[in-house]
Amino acid sequence: MLNILSALIGLVTLILMIPAVFPLLGALNWLLVPMALFGAFVGMFSSRNGGRNFCLFVAAFGALRLFLGGGIL
């Protein structure tokens, strides 16, 4: 059950991350990366690790976007 919840948190975060790819909206990732890490934290308590890994991938994508935009763009 926690694996499904973690995957849903990751999916919602990924959908919300789509506008953050556009220029001048990259600062939205400052809110979305911790949300994805929270999903990974929830997935850590599951016996399966698919949802946790998905959330970590989403968090890494958001962090990469923040890095490329200098933290602001």
The quaternary structure here is single chain
> What's the SSE pattern?
HHH
Over all CA atoms, what is the radius of gyration?
A: 12 Å
Shape: elongated
**Mean pLDDT over all positions:** 91
Terminal CA distance reads 36 Å
Report the sheet-strand fraction: under 5%
Unreliable stretches: none
Strands, total number: 0
Describe it for me?
- This protein is mainly alpha-helical and 73 residues long.
- The protein contains three helices and no strands.
- Helix 1 runs antiparallel to helix 2 and helix 2 packs antiparallel against helix 3.
- The longest helix has 19 residues, at 50-68.
- It starts with a helix and ends in a 5-residue tail after the last helix.
- The model has no long low-confidence stretch (mean pLDDT 91).
Entry keywords:
mainly alpha
Mind sketching the topology for me?
Layout: H1 2-17, H2 29-43, H3 50-68
Helix pairs in contact: 1-2, 1-3, 2-3
Summarize the structure.
By secondary structure, this protein is mostly helical. It is built from three helices and no strands.
